[in-house]
Amino acid sequence: MRLRPEQMDALAREIVESLVQKGFVRPAAEEKVLQNMVARVLMQNLEEEAALEAEAEQMAEKYLRGNPELDRRKLVQGIKARLAEERGFVL
């Protein structure tokens, strides 16, 4: 998933504002600081997922060479799910 920086900031702002408004968190720092932290965590998660996807693509390529009749998309998704589970990464 590709998000522009302004989209990421807007998403982080919505998350923080909702959590504060609903009383799930009482900020010990300014909301802007929390928004920046949330945006960084979201970006890191998206980057990790992209790396996982790339690794799954590479692994799938090896399987597809010997079995061209396999569905590439399903194979990549299956490998990605397995890798995520092994690494404790939530998709």
Description:
Helix content is about 75%, strand content about 0%. The protein contains 3 helices and no strands. The longest helix is centred in the middle third of the chain and has 36 residues, at about 30-65.
Helix content estimate: over 70%
Shape: elongated
Portion in beta strands: under 5%
Largest sheet: none
What is the mean pLDDT?
92
Question: What structural class do helix, strand and pairing data support?
Answer: mainly alpha
Count helical runs. Answer: 3
**What's the SSE pattern?**
HHH
- Counted beta strands: 0
- The end-to-end distance, rounded to whole angstroms, is 12 Å
Low-confidence parts: none
Give the radius of gyration. Answer: 18 Å
In short:
By secondary structure, this protein is mainly alpha-helical. It has three helices and no strands.
Strand-helix topology:
Blueprint: H1 5-21, H2 31-66, H3 72-87
Helix pairs in contact: 1-2, 2-3
